[in-house]
Write a structure and sequence with these properties.
single chain; alpha/beta; Rossmann fold; nine-stranded mixed β-sheet; 17 helices; 9 strands
């Protein structure tokens, strides 16, 4: 880590130094979980159900594995990644901080979205020993407290994450990468703090907001967002519920580990780069142990309800984000494979490379960590951050 130094205009968020964090789930919590899993009332598939999504058979497999799973071994693996909690504004922010042994290593901020947590991005971070990697938990996710007051907007998340990197950790400059909702957060950080952002890597490239999309005239751009709209019309019920009836849904999922598992895994299945119709194929990209780690973190932290806040508090309906002039590379993941290059070039004004990944879907850092780490390392080298 670099020595703390002035980081330009302050964010205005009060912050405190990081305190070490180590995870230990109480035996009583594990006993209760196992009891609930043993009493799960699992249903058969509905007649004529869509071929995509989760199946009753695969869910039953996962529930049985979760009952017998050696959580303590996984807990030890998580704790091998040094973690902290720091007060940033009115949120206690949890993050893993993987420091390089290399003097002057470039800093990288890695951010998740929904429904994944910081844990799903640790395999990517592990492949970057020549970087100082900060893998942050969003407020209200995992071991980060939710914002105590006010909405969870992209602007607010961006201010929180920038304060973490500069005011708490003392990095003068850093690279940034985000997925899902934090893709826009990463864009916003780069646009708002170009003097502190050495570069941005995107696999979920910039999305204009709804008003900006309505004004598009390029046929490829219009067709892309028409396709996105059609996909959400067919597959977006989860988001509608989370944005309109979050508490009702959260009660059910926080009370039933099988229900929670089904809700989370369906998205891992549908959004990863795997064949449709075989839900277990998700494990070609995201192992069963990693899937269960996600479910366990949501379960023990009771954070499924607070993880819905971006949906009903407007983080998915952002204000326009201005173009950014910081160096950028864009590698489109398979879940958005037809994203038009013209959109990227209008937003990332110093676009150093644009490509489309051959493999890897919505959870890119988890699905293809080696390929992504290789691209990031090449980008940092081109910027003179690595030899």
């Amino acid at each position: 880590m670099t020595d703390p130094q002035p980081s330009g205009p302050p964010s205005g968020l009060p912050s405190s130094g990081p305190q070490p964090f180590e995870l230990h789930v109480a035996d009583a919590v594990l006993d209760d979980l196992h009891s609930r899993l043993a009493r799960s009332r699992l249903l058969a598939d509905s007649p004529r159900k869509p071929a995509s999504g989760l199946s009753a058979a695969y869910l039953r497999e996962l529930v049985e594995t979760w009952r017998e799973w050696d959580w303590r071994a996984r807990e030890s693996w998580l704790n091998a990644h040094q973690q902290f909690i720091a007060q940033v504004g009115d949120a206690a922010l949890h993050f893993a901080h993987l420091r390089s042994d290399r003097a002057g290593a470039p800093a990288l901020l890695v951010m998740h979205g929904w429904p994944h947590t910081f844990a799903l991005q640790l395999d990517f971070a592990d492949r970057l020993p020549d970087f100082d990697v900060v893998v942050a938990s969003l407020p209200g996710f995992a071991f980060s407290s939710p914002y105590a007051d006010g909405p969870m907007s992209e602007t607010r998340i961006a201010a929180t994450m920038h304060a973490l990197m500069t005011e708490v950790l003392g990095y003068e400059r850093y690279l940034t990468y985000g997925e899902d909702v934090t893709a826009n957060v990463s864009d916003l950080i780069a646009a708002s703090h170009p003097e502190h952002v050495a570069g941005i890597m995107a696999t979920h490239a910039h999305f204009p907001n709804s008003a900006e999309r309505a004004a598009l005239t390029d046929p490829d751009e219009v067709a892309f967002f028409d396709g996105i709209a059609a996909f959400h019309e067919e597959h977006g019920a989860y988001g509608h519920v989370q944005s309109t009836r979050p508490d009702t849904l959260a009660v059910a999922l926080d009370d039933s580990p099988a229900g929670l598992l089904a809700w989370l895994v369906e998205k891992l299945v549908e959004w990863s780069d795997t064949p449709r119709g075989d839900p277990s194929a998700v494990e070609r990209r995201i192992s069963r142990g990693r899937i269960l780690t996600e479910a366990m973190i949501y379960w023990v932290t009771h954070s499924i309800g607070t993880s819905f806040r971006p949906y009903y508090e407007g983080a998915d309906q952002p204000d326009p984000i201005p173009p950014t002039s910081v160096p950028a590379v864009v590698y489109i993941q398979r879940h958005e494979s037809t994203y038009p290059e013209t959109l990227a070039r209008r937003h990332y004004l110093d676009l150093r490379d644009f490509g489309r990944l051959d493999e890897g879907g919505h959870f890119t850092a988890a699905e293809v960590p080696d390929a992504l780490a290789q691209r990031l390392r090449a980008f940092a080298t081109s910027l003179g951050l690595l030899a």
